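Figure 3 (text version): structure tokens given as input.
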């Protein structure tokens, strides 16, 4: 089988198509992490960008509930790594006509700017939600965020997942 973008994208597309057969496209969303320079467990190659561009274009035709794109950042350090162009949402937005959720290293301000400028329909938060169980309330009231502690990620226990205080608990503890 030839090493083409079409063949590399075959597996995720066949899985999605099988799921959509059971659930209808509007009930199915997917997350992609186009790690274009290679972060975490992923090693990018020269074919990576071409493959993701093809895959995103094919997903666009499927009218899914959403496509969620994660920037190539280190989950452990939050460090943004150099990526093609100005970020995955901006790069792939022209290729995807449905609802696009951007993720990876955003703050309240940068996330809102991305949506305002039309590069995403929504922005998702990962690590800030772990360390701020009341993240939405903190954003709404312009409250300071708890920093997250990567030492407790993937630690196997509850510590660092369920014990960060809400803003109200912090005020009550003062
Ligand atoms: C401890 C931890 C566990 C995660 N587990 C998953 C996972 O199972 N699946 C997934 O798609 N992303 C996972 N992520 C990635 C987040 O969903 C998110 O894409 C990433 O943290 C970047 O967003 P952020 O900068 O808002 O944290 C995890 C992140 C952290 C910090």
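Below: residues designed for each position.
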């Amino acid at each position: 089988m030839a090493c083409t973008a079409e063949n590399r994208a075959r597996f995720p597309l066949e899985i999605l198509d099988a799921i959509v057969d059971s659930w209808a496209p509007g009930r199915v969303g997917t997350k992609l992490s186009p790690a274009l320079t290679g972060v975490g467990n992923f090693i990018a190659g020269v074919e990576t960008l071409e493959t993701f561009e093809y895959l995103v274009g094919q997903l666009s035709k499927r009218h899914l509930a959403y496509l969620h794109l994660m920037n190539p950042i280190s989950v452990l350090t939050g460090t943004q790594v150099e990526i093609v162009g100005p970020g995955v949402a901006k790069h792939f937005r022209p290729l995807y006509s449905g609802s696009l959720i951007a993720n990876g290293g955003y703050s309240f301000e940068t996330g809102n700017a991305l949506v305002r400028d039309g590069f995403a329909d929504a922005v998702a938060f990962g690590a800030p939600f772990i360390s701020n169980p009341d993240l939405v309330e903190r954003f709404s009231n312009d409250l300071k965020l708890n920093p997250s502690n990567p030492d407790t990620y993937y630690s196997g226990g509850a510590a660092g997942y369920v014990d960060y205080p809400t803003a109200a608990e912090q005020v009550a503890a003062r």
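DSSP finds eight helices and four strands in the chain.
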